[in-house]
Amino acid sequence: MAGITFTAYDLATRFVGVKEFPGSDSNPFIMSLLRLDQGWPRNDEVPWCSAFVNYIAWLIPPGGLPRSKNLAARSWLDVGRPINLDQARAGFDVVILSRGADPASGHVGFYAHHTTARVTLLGGNQSDAVRLSDYDVRRVVGVRRLWDG
User: Residue 49 pairs with which residues in a beta bridge?
Assistant: First the structure.
């Protein structure tokens, strides 16, 4: 992928602060994320973390990064190359988390950094917005390298 001068993480930071509209209105930008690969969402009151990661991966030139093309966060477990959390690098990797007791539920975001107890992700639908958020490291179910740049 010669010619890339910025990472997916760099690009994702430009969207920090984008958030859902309160009430019955939907943010048109979030709706465009949701409909990039799947046309069913009627509002932004659905999980959109995977839609955000897919959108950012799609924007990276030339030809984009590998994408799941799916709104399910755990769909990212089949994208890119699996790596250990200790190998993760901001700008190159996504982290997939569990969410609740449902093994199909999850959350995905771009890796920022981690400690022994917490992992910080930059992602969408984190408190209904694009932002940095910390999660318990025990929730990590996978880390995927999208690009080896």
Answer: none
